[in-house]
Amino acid sequence: MSRNGQHTIAIVGATGAVGEVLLQVLEERHFPVGELRPLASERSAGNTVRFAGKDIPVQLAQPKALDGTDFVFFAATGTLSKELAPEAAKRGAVAIDKSSTWRMDPRVPLVVPEVNPQALKSHEGIIACPNCTTIGFVMALEPIRRAAGLKHVVVTTLQAVSGAGKPGVDELDAQIEATLRGETPSAKVFAAPIAFNVLPLCETFREDGYSTEEVKLLFETRKIMELPDLDVAMTCVRVPVPVGHSATVLIETERPLSADAARAALAAFPGVRVVDDPKHNIFPTPADVAGHDDVLVGRIRKDLGSDRLWLWEVSDNLRKGAATNAVQIAEELIRQGLK
Amino acid sequence: MSRNGQHTIAIVGATGAVGEVLLQVLEERHFPVGELRPLASERSAGNTVRFAGKDIPVQLAQPKALDGTDFVFFAATGTLSKELAPEAAKRGAVAIDKSSTWRMDPRVPLVVPEVNPQALKSHEGIIACPNCTTIGFVMALEPIRRAAGLKHVVVTTLQAVSGAGKPGVDELDAQIEATLRGETPSAKVFAAPIAFNVLPLCETFREDGYSTEEVKLLFETRKIMELPDLDVAMTCVRVPVPVGHSATVLIETERPLSADAARAALAAFPGVRVVDDPKHNIFPTPADVAGHDDVLVGRIRKDLGSDRLWLWEVSDNLRKGAATNAVQIAEELIRQGLK
Questions:
Q1: Phi, psi of B132 (to 5 degrees)
Q2: What does residue B302 show for φ and ψ, rounded to 5 degrees?
Q3: Closest residue of B to A235, CA-based?
Q4: How far is CA B16 from CA A86, A196, B45, B315, in A?
Q5: Does the predicted interface ipTM exceed a cut of 0.85?
Q6: CB-based contacts of A10: which residues, under 8 Å, 6+ apart?
Q7: C-alpha B296: how far from chain center
Q8: Is the confidence at residue A184, as pLDDT, over 60?
């Protein structure tokens, strides 16, 4: 339990791509950390991670390592989340899970704090953090929904390789270097070479020809926004970008909404920054958003042939798409007195 | 005029990215070339190009260099096309222009030979080749239109840097190398660094916030398909891929069309190849299409929430998107006895 407003924090998967950013974000945001316990699977236990100027040994992720914790962040495989999140809850901690394991469980809130903080109230010790792609998407949709309602959305995502963790980044780097040496790059993490290429597949294909990523985007958006019938037509594409997911989004609103009104609604929304000045070639890109928490939105304009609205959103998939959102969930729980 | 079925060919812009591929395509397709005249602006005149095993000197692109030609391919700047295409026509040659100069001129046919060969009949000596992005797009739309009619289309393009010619490819390469050396890449051809990044801008922004590329895609598609009211909602994005434009396309048809029927219609269309087997992770990518003439289509599936159809198309923007289409126009003119 928290002592003097300080919290005992465990991070499962502390040595992964999201785990590393979690450590940074906790420090940057001055999260009240009393004790920090980095945890990992056997492969990484025994290493150290750097936090608040100290090297802290990584312990094995197992139930007893969760004794006395207040918050347990899961930034590892779904298997570890499935096993250990209930163990954290059983010990009175709150598990904040970045894997997809608990997201669609009706007992588990799926939360983007700027969008649905009210969902936290009913938590039973496990809270799910949405998919990195979903977070940027709902952050851009919510201001539009509040201004004019949502009828229908079409989205194409362009997703960074770090969406597949460090192995994804390493594979892009290795393939770029192989290509520059004149070799044929080999693919392991992704289904085909991603260097100098784009792939219309994120994660894996389901029986119906949709990717698991695409279906997550639909169902998570509906749950977070509490719009169970919202139609989202989507294609998810992997692009050779290290960090930063982008998306083109075409929105049919319930009530008319001008591009200027949409721009104002987006600019006023916490965590969203409008970067949109085509006259001066100003638009947001993954390179601009990498390392930052805001979701950047640009190319806000009406469709030429209908009343629909186009926009382009980019967000750092490791920060707002993962670590920052998870830490914000913990902050919001404290703010609401729910922990 | 043609002698013994052999033609005198001039290529304006023979040393550029499309010009080089034009030379290759003319050879590969055994186009009946009697004499070949590579032409270029002052900067490149005096170089040589390789054709049919010979080095041929590049002459200055000027009206008198067009005397006695049968076909003049324009793969250079709009300024040269504007000046010299009428000069070619005046001399009885057919100008086949890859620039955007003549595309929307009502006297000039805008032709993708598989889609609207009939438009050639009315030519007055100048024929326009559509934008590289438009060609792949209409090649994928036309079979669907013939099978079930088109009501509405939403498209997001992911366009290769060679869409901006050799300078685009050189800029990507230089930026990749700079990034690997730990330097900050500088951007000149594109509005922001494209290496390890994606940009929601192809070409330049208009006053209304649309890019010139996006508006071309709309108006050229309407003209080629002879569907002046077709609604196309579009966003064009530049991606760090050397060759091969991709697009996600969501199509509302006039009559119901199953994914299987769409797949069959696409597979039966000349110049289109279906590459679509998600069970075995088979989908087309720019790396697959580079160097090939077919437009590859995959990810053919129904929208989860409506009767609309999704597909993913990729085409080589230098070949079918430019050089191959231009040579096919010349072949079709000969076939129809129009030259």
A1: -55, -35
A2: -80, 145
A3: B248
A4: 63, 21, 12, 19
A5: yes
A6: A36, A37, A38, A39, A65, A66, A69, A71, A72, A73, A88, A93
A7: 14
A8: yes
CA-closest candidate to residue A317, choices A308, A306, A326: A326
Can you tell me which residue has the tokens 């920054």? A273
| Cβ contact A200–B278 (<8 Å) | no
Nearest-by-CA chain A residue for B281 = A191
Q: How many angstroms separate the Cα of B217 from the Cα of each of A61, A317, B100, B116?
A: 54, 31, 11, 16
What pLDDT score was predicted for residue A156?
98
Terminal C-alpha separation, chain B: 9
Q: Across all residues in chain A, what is the average pLDDT?
A: 96
Chain A: closest CA distance from residue B279 (Å):
7
CATH code of A7-129+322-335, in short, is 3.40.50.720
Question: Are A248 and B200 within 8 A, CB to CB?
Answer: yes
A162, closest residue in chain B (CA to CA): B196
Residue A221 has a pLDDT of: 98
* Section B203-229 average pLDDT: 98
CA pair distance B278, A203, nearest whole angstrom: 12
CATH of span B134-316: 3.30.360.10
Which positions of A are catalytic? 132, 245
Domain ranges in chain B are 7-129+322-335, 134-316
pLDDT of residue B2: 60
Segment holding B256, helix H or strand E: none
* Coil vs helix vs strand at A274: strand
CB B314 within 8 A of CB B284: yes
Of the candidates A298, A295, A292, A285, the one whose C-alpha atom is nearest the C-alpha of residue A319 is: A292
A315-339 pLDDT tens trace: 999 999 999 999 999 999 999 999 8
Quick: pLDDT tens for A266-290: 999 999 999 999 999 999 999 999 9
> Which residue among A199, A233, A310 places its CB closest to the CB of B235?
A310
Mean pLDDT of A50-58: 95
Q: What is the mean pLDDT of residues A147-152?
A: 98
Mean of pLDDT values over A121-126 = 97
Contact predicate A270/A298, CB 8 Å: no
